[in-house]
Amino acid sequence: MVARPHWEAIGKCDEWDTPSYVIQAFGDTFDMDVAHPANRPTSVPCKNWISELSLLKPWRGFIWCNPPFGQRNGLDPWLTRFIDHGNGIALTPDRTSAPWFQRHAPHADLLLFVRKKIQFTRPDGTVGKQPNCGTCLWAKGERGVRALVHARDCGLGMLVTPS
Predict the structure, then answer these.
(1) Does residue 5 lie within any of the structural domains?
(2) Which of 13, 49, 54, 150 allows an S-S link to 33, with CB 3.0 to 4.6 Å?
(3) Domain total for the chain?
(4) Terminus-to-terminus CA distance in the chain, angstroms?
């Protein structure tokens, strides 16, 4: 058996919804949810969403990106695309020592480390247990920065400007 670093552990479930209090803290709506699970309602106020092959389709406007965390290093292509798109908010674990975090964080315009661990919701509506790590929100673009500042002002967490 090969020992895996903590940040490469695979979760039991890859589909988790972000609680509405997180989304509401941004004080804004989104043009597109780029990682929305198919055939499910959303708490994300957006005009459009992508449910399949999201990394291959065009992203437009101010986007929300809560990508699947399950695959080893699976966040890498999502964060590459998010940074290249340059306009939105992404949600990831706050695994600051993970290679994908170290690679992409310097390219974010602003980061917000959520004050309390978020209890995400399963597809059936039940609330999950407390996760093993916290959450980091990433901003790209002026609108994303404004949204994270608003979230901080609402008490959601602490801001960090990458250097």
Answers:
(1) no
(2) 49
(3) 1
(4) 38
Question: Is 3 contained in some domain?
Answer: no
Q: Please give the structure tokens belonging to residue 4.
A: 């895996």
Q: What is the domain-level CATH number for residue 20?
A: 3.40.50
Residue closest to 105 by CA, chosen among 79, 85, 81, 126:
79
The Cα 121–Cα 40 span in angstroms is 12
**Could you report the per-residue pLDDT of 14-72, keeping only the tens digit for each?**
566 788 899 999 999 999 999 987 777 677 888 898 988 999 999 999 999 999 876 66
The closest alpha carbon to 98, from 82, 78, 76, 114, belongs to: 76
Q: 134, 95 in Cβ contact below 8 A?
A: no
Which residues form the domain of 65? 12-160
CA–CA separation, 51 and 35 (whole Å): 6
Per DSSP bridges, beta strands 46-49 and 88-93 are unpaired
